[in-house]
Amino acid sequence: MSEAAPGIPDSPAYATAERAELAGALRGLIDAVMSVEEVDGETLHDIAQQVEQLTFRLGRGRDAGPGYMPRHHGDYLPRSPIVGEASPLAPRLDWQVVDREGEFPIVEARGSFGAAYEGPPSFVHGGWVACAFDEILGIANIEAGHPGMTARLTVHYRRPTPLFRDLVVRGWVDRVEGRRIMSRAEIFDGETLTAEAEGLFVQPRPELAEQYFGPRD
Question: What is the span of the domain harbouring residue 41?
């Protein structure tokens, strides 16, 4: 899933199966760059040259600049550094709503973190854990009909979160008080709770939301 907000479709020119395939291949390349040690300098130089050529084929030469342009806010999740199927930076965690029986739905994401996300040896960097929480809680808020901007995120690191393990991240809205949304999340490695979080999110006033994100249909 990659819908940033109800009623706002992803850009068909960007969020394609082919781009997701390319992003997946690049994740493999990133993981190899971070993991493989016994490679001679000539091979590394060769690969770097090939990567530059591929970048050029995509329309970005070495001195072309970042190429970033403002875009519709509905295009965000495909590019997300956590769940974005089109982002080579994403681990990537695949999410879905797993329970709509309660007052607020529960969102669950499954996936693993590779070598690029290492903090302490063999474990996920705590900053990436916090980033994952922020993203999953944001999605949970949207699914509950209460989108908001992060005002505070408190993370409790219970145990180190391991690399290369299938993890489960769950997030849900705990309660809503006016424009304030209080949400909770947790990460499990099997039956082991490795971290949990509480987030405070604030729904911006319509005029401020339009200033930040542009007009909404």
Answer: 1-217
User: How many Å apart are CA 61 and CA 82, to the nearest integer?
Assistant: 27
Backbone dihedral region for residue 59 (phi beyond 0: left; psi -120 to 50: alpha; all else: beta): left
Task: Give the chain's domain count.
Answer: 1
pLDDT for 177-214, tens place per residue?
999 999 999 999 999 999 999 999 999 888 887 777 66
Residues 6+ apart with CB under 8 A from 119: 125, 126, 127, 128
Give start and end residues of each alpha helix (H) in the chain. 17-35, 41-57, 126-143, 206-213
CATH code for the domain of 201: 3.10.129.10
Distance CA 146, CA 43 (A): 51
Q: What is the pLDDT of residues 161-185, one digit of tens each?
A: 999 999 999 999 999 999 999 999 9
